[in-house]
Amino acid sequence: MSTETPPFDPARPYRLTPSVAVRPEPFGALLYDYGTRQLSFLKTPALVRVVCTLADHPDASSALAAAVVPRTDRPRYLNALAGLAAAGTIQARSQA
After folding, report:
1. What is the DSSP-derived secondary structure letter of residue 5?
2. Where are the alpha helices (DSSP H) in 6-57?
3. Mean pLDDT, rounded, of the chain
4. By C-alpha distance, which of 64, 50, 55 is closest to 92?
5. pLDDT at 1 over 80
6. Between the CA atoms of 63, 30, 3 and 91, what dihedral angle is there, to the nearest 10 degrees?
7. CB neighbours (10 Å) of residue 43?
């Protein structure tokens, strides 16, 4: 049985991992995971909005649209979300 995290899929629903705290900053935000003691940086306020509202949307792509991320910038944001998913900062949630 594999314990690997499945690859990030923007068509799936995600949420901020419960052990992660967000501290807003002028540049974006600091994320601290109390479980792993990992510190991450979100470098734009729009990315902070996306990450903090992931659980309110049916999928990650919808969260980007709701945060009014321009279509031309979405690949960069999806790459950032994939990195956060790989680090365990955000996690997939059930679609129900």
Report:
1. P
2. 45-53
3. 92
4. 55
5. no
6. -20
7. 12
Say which DSSP state 34 is in: T
Three-state DSSP at 46 gives helix
- What number is the average pLDDT over the span 15-35? 96
- Burial of 63 per CB tally in 10 Å (0-12, 13-18, 19+): buried
**Does this model's pTM top 0.85?**
yes
What is the C-alpha to C-alpha distance for residues 51 and 4, in angstroms, rounded to an integer?
A: 22
Report the Cα 25 to chain-centroid distance in Å. Answer: 17
Residues 6+ away with beta carbon under 8 Å from 29: 22, 23, 41, 42, 48, 51
Q: Which long-range contacts (CB under 8 A, 24 or more apart) does 41-47 make?
A: 42/80, 46/77, 47/77, 47/80
Report the chain's C-alpha Rg in angstroms. 13
Q: Check residue 94 and give its pLDDT.
A: 83
